[in-house]
Design a protein that fits this description.
Chains: A alpha/beta (about 325), B mainly alpha (about 300), C alpha/beta (about 325)
Number of strands of chain A: 12
Oligomer: heterotrimer
Shape of chain C: globular
CATH superfamily of the domain at 5-87 and 208-318 in chain A: P-loop containing nucleotide triphosphate hydrolases
CATH architecture of the domain at 5-87 and 208-318 in chain A: 3-Layer(aba) Sandwich
Helix content of chain A: 25-40%
Distance between the termini of chain A: 27 Å
CATH class of the domain at 5-87 and 208-318 in chain A: Alpha Beta
Structural class of chain A: alpha/beta
Largest sheet of chain A: 8 strands, mixed
Mean pLDDT of chain A: 85
Helix content of chain C: 25-40%
Number of strands of chain C: 11
Low-confidence stretches of chain A: none
Number of helices of chain C: 10
Radius of gyration of chain C: 21 Å
Largest sheet of chain C: 7 strands, mixed
Distance between the termini of chain C: 35 Å
Strand content of chain A: 15-25%
């Protein structure tokens, strides 16, 4: 793993207009993505992981969204300050994105080949014929069977797994340095999910590309990510290498989450460990640490003071007043 | 442990129904509020007429032929010296009477048949309703009305019957589609699993969830009915007793050559104002009531 | 041998596909294609499979929410598929269902209290006052406070709505509950709460569950026995512990190996299946799994393997494969 940061996010803060006023979906988070690494943004629904991913390319719908503060630095250039035209050129070329539901991201009235071709012609200036040849190559590369036939089919003729492969082909068509993948396999069946994840991993190594994987599934994090940032209510509560995170989780939320996942065990348990209560409403976030109300280690300090992210011995970060050792 | 925690979480203060959420949204929609206010003023005018507060002298000859605009006759008088403004206000009551009656009946019939057809979609009841919809929609509206008006020549409500029997189809189609969607939802399956009878499912679980469509459809049919009344009255197929904007417009044709436009101005302005306000209200209701946007 | 609570025998549910001018039947979608199993009172059978395998249709056909095409469903020895409407209504007191989508499973225009009371009203159980008291009792059972009964579904979180759905299913004190993916729409930290509630109900009230899920980990936590479905048929059946430890069918093995494990230290050899699940309209001849199976031979393409116990194997386990065995 190379040690240089490809992308630096500093102090990113995103808010949304709600019925009762502004909601803070992402609260001053900072992280780096190193060249060629896979960083997971992991957490439950509403934790801000998807909004973070979208904000990197300023894809948050505005309004109701507002990126109120922060920087996203790529080669020392702040993407949040770029004019829209420059940003559009950069999307796809330097940073590409894939989404959870490929059916909504593909245009139903154009064939796969036409949609891939458009991207290739616009970003790489290929001729119609060259674009088609390259599109075929890409479909082959992402493991679509019979690409010569599939290229003229329409999105509804493909299965969910194949559509996601087409999305990957489209995202990778211009050789981006960073891929932001938002729950790319959540809509797929478990055996298809395994295929697609294996495919993404292989392509990432071949293309020497970095990836931000947004997911709620800690199993996927463990199997395909180098580092992981655990998010809760808009904040990163713990960011460590995957091995360290799973062997010695420091933050009580991480610990609770790891225990709570239903996993295949040697013995069936009488009761699954759970995190009591539920994720607080973003409109009524408590002061101090957002997790305090559900935390077995919480003290008065936690209910009053927001814990700052502190470095751990292994080079990670944890934002907790009373972390597990 | 988990039990008590879940218990606390459900008790956040201030709970509201979907209707209250919709009202909240409507109150923040300025165009919608304005439209509501305008419709309210018209309704007040109509109620005043029904209660005998004003415009009771619409049929009396209170002035001279084609009297000019004056303090006594705000918009002048007509060919036989009746007050045009009073006639216009009185016609508002006619418009509401036609609109309300037709909209209530047409939407109710449409909702009922649409819901039954949608709930039994694919069966013979559905086929019959669909066939009926096709037949009615295939006959041109004014031909249909003329036929009914002719058949019920002496009946004072022949126009209403004609409108109701054609206007229900739009609601029926919409409701049928929505019910087919609702029928597949899990809360309807849950009701079936409990053993709730089909009729009860339709009235308790399905129809209430189409209320937002019915309300919007009601405003649209209302507008359609008022517009049709004007056209039919103009053609002599409409209002037989009393006064209406359509009759005023019909009367105004006699006045053009004499350079008199007061009937035309009053009737068409009042008609335009009400139709416009109702259309805006329908838009605002649609936005406020859409359950997908209420969440 | 005593009568099982539920006995499903050769159950089929085919959906005719219509096309062309006169909407003629052009094919059959075989969602459930000959399923048989037994479930004893108070036990849980986990039904696992990928989307489109027919597991949800099977659950609904058992409850006769969808009319089965063929086969029998015996609940406490009486055939549900042959029941008159009146008999079926009575039988509904003994069997209930919990749904997947907590947002669609409650009528948005009815309060939570009304939703839970409805089954009591329909079956005229107790006086109106007793019904109200019963609603409070049920809310308490599923861990919700009495005050929430006047609230509407949109005021609740997904986990809380799922509790309401469970309370509604419990109202009639059924002997069998079909749980169709009850936790797959919930967040991880809430899934555990709902699964524990289901496990507690089963222990304390002796309710039998047919627990349908695509998630093998969830299935393992709640099930005594597990049935794996592929294209409308059960391909492997057995006691949960044994099936997870020594799966015999290559599909079960692939399914188990595909589950991402939250443990980076223990990366396993993963069986990545080629291709995708074929359409249930045109399922392959012979063994439906053969186009994706690493063990497929000529026999598999010609002859469909029946579900059978293996000689010398566990008598309670069954597998539908010509060449079963550990992976």
């Amino acid at each position: 793993m190379a040690g240089t940061a490809l992308l630096s996010v500093r102090n990113l803060t995103v808010e949304f207009d709600g019925r009762a006023g502004r909601l803070r979906a992402v609260d001053a988070i900072s992280f780096d993505v190193l060249a060629e690494e896979t960083l997971a943004l992991v957490g439950e629904s509403g934790c801000g992981k998807t909004v973070t991913g979208l904000s990197l390319l300023r894809l948050v719908p505005q309004p109701p969204g507002h990126i109120v503060a922060g920087e996203v630095l790529l080669d020392g250039e702040d993407l949040l300050a770029l004019p829209e035209r420059a940003l559009r050129r950069l999307r796809g070329r330097d940073i590409a994105m894939i989404f959870q539901e490929p059916m909504t991201a593909l245009n139903p009235v154009f064939s796969i080949g036409a949609q891939l071709g458009t991207v290739l012609r616009r970003h790489q200036g290929l001729s119609r014929r060259a674009a088609r040849a390259r599109a075929l190559e890409l479909l082959e590369q992402v493991g679509i069977p019979e690409p010569a036939r599939r290229i003229d089919e329409y999105p509804h003729q493909l299965s969910g797994g194949q559509r996601q492969r087409v999305m990957i082909a489209m995202a990778l068509s211009c050789g981006p340095r960073l891929l932001v993948a938002d729950e790319p396999t959540t809509a797929l069946d478990v055996t298809t999910q395994a295929q697609v994840l294996a495919e993404i991993g292989r392509l990432q190594r071949e293309l020497r590309m970095a990836m931000i994987l947004v997911t709620h599934d800690l199993g996927i994090v463990a199997e395909s990510c180098d580092r992981a940032a655990v998010m809760y209510c808009g904040r990163i509560v713990e960011m460590r290498t995957t091995a360290a995170l799973f062997s010695t989780p420091h933050h009580p939320y991480t610990v609770g989450l790891l225990e709570a996942i239903p996993r295949i065990r040697e013995e069936r348990l009488a009761d699954l460990p759970v995190i009591p209560g539920r994720v607080p409403d973003l409109a009524q976030l408590p002061a101090g640490c957002h997790f305090a109300a559900r935390c077995p280690r919480a003290t008065d300090l936690c209910r009053e003071v927001v814990p700052a992210p502190l470095p751990t011995a292994d080079g990670g970060l944890v934002a907790c007043h009373h972390p597990y050792p | 442990m988990s039990r008590s925690a879940a218990r606390d979480a459900g008790d956040s203060p201030g709970h509201d129904t979907l209707w209250r959420l919709a009202a909240h949204k409507l109150l923040r929609d300025r165009a919608g509020l304005l439209a509501l206010a305008v419709v309210g003023i018209y309704l007040l005018a109509a109620i005043g007429v029904w209660l005998g507060w004003w415009a009771q002298e619409w049929a009396l000859i209170t002035g001279s032929k084609w009297g000019p605009v004056s303090a006594e006759h705000w918009f002048g008088t007509n060919i036989i010296g009746q007050d045009i403004f009073q006639r216009g206000i009185y016609s508002t009551a006619t418009a509401f009477q036609v609109g309300l009656l037709v909209a209530v009946l047409a939407v109710a019939i449409g909702a009922l048949l649409g819901a039954v057809a949608g709930f039994l979609a694919g069966g013979w009841v559905d086929e019959v309703v669909l066939w009926l919809l096709g037949v009615i929609d295939a006959v041109p509206f004014y031909l249909m009305v003329a036929a009914i008006a002719f058949a019920l020549a002496d009946y004072p409500y022949s126009m209403h019957v004609a409108m109701v029997s054609t206007f229900w189809t739009g609601t029926a189609r919409l409701v049928r589609g929505e019910v087919i969607k609702l029928r597949g939802l899990e809360f309807v399956e849950a009701a079936r699993a409990i053993g709730v009878p089909g009729v009860t499912i339709i009235f308790r679980h399905v129809l209430p969830n189409t209320f937002h469509i019915l309300l919007v459809k009601f405003t649209l049919v209302f507008v359609d009915a008022i517009k049709s009344e004007v056209v039919l009255s103009f053609l002599g197929l409409g209002v037989k007793e009393g006064m209406s904007w359509g009759l005023m417009l019909s009367e105004s044709t006699l006045e053009f050559l004499a350079g008199q436009f007061n009937n035309l101005i009053v009737a068409s302005s009042l008609l335009f104002g009400l139709v416009f306000a109702f259309n805006m209200l329908a838009d605002a209701l649609q936005d406020a009531l859409d359950p997908r946007r209420a969440a | 041998m005593n009568t099982p609570l539920l006995e499903v025998d050769g159950l089929k549910k085919h959906f005719p596909l219509r096309g062309g001018w006169l909407r003629r039947v052009t094919g059959q979608l075989r969602a459930v294609d000959g399923v048989s199993f037994r479930l004893q009172a108070g036990r849980t059978l986990g039904l696992v499979g990928e989307s489109g395998c027919g597991k949800s249709t099977l659950g609904r056909a058992i409850l006769r929410l969808q009319e089965p095409t063929a086969g029998r469903v015996l609940l406490e020895g009486r055939d549900i598929t042959a029941m008159t409407p009146a008999a079926l209504l009575a039988a509904r007191r003994r069997m209930q269902i919990i749904f997947q989508d907590p947002y669609a499973s409650l009528n948005p225009r009815r309060t939570v209290g009304q939703a839970i009371r409805e089954p009591l009203d329909v079956h005229r159980i107790g006086t109106p006052v007793e019904r109200d008291a019963r609603v409070l009792e049920l809310l308490d059972t599923v861990g919700l406070s009495a005050r929430v009964r006047h609230r509407y579904p949109h005021e609740f979180s997904g986990g809380q709505r799922q509790r309401v759905g469970i309370a509604r299913a419990l109202a009639l004190e059924p002997a069998l509950i079909v749980a169709d993916e009850p936790v797959s729409a919930l967040d991880v930290s809430v899934q555990g709460q709902v699964l524990n509630l289901v496990a507690r109900l089963q222990r304390e009230r002796g309710i039998a569950f047919l627990f349908i899920s695509h998630d093998l980990a969830v299935i393992q936590h709640v099930s005594d026995a597990v049935a794996v479905m592929y294209l409308g048929r059960i391909v492997e059946y057995g006691p949960a512990a044994l099936l997870y430890r020594e799966p015999q069918h290559p599909y079960t093995q692939a399914l188990l190996s595909a589950v991402p494990m939250p443990d980076p230290a223990r990366r396993r050899r993963r069986i990545v299946l080629p291709g995708e699940v074929p359409s249930p309209v045109a399922s392959p001849a012979g063994c439906a799994f053969h186009p994706r199976c690493p063990r497929a031979r000529a026999l598999c393409r010609q002859e469909r393997p029946e579900l059978r116990s293996l000689p010398g194997g566990d008598p309670g386990s069954q597998v539908a494969c010509h060449f079963p065995g550990p992976g």
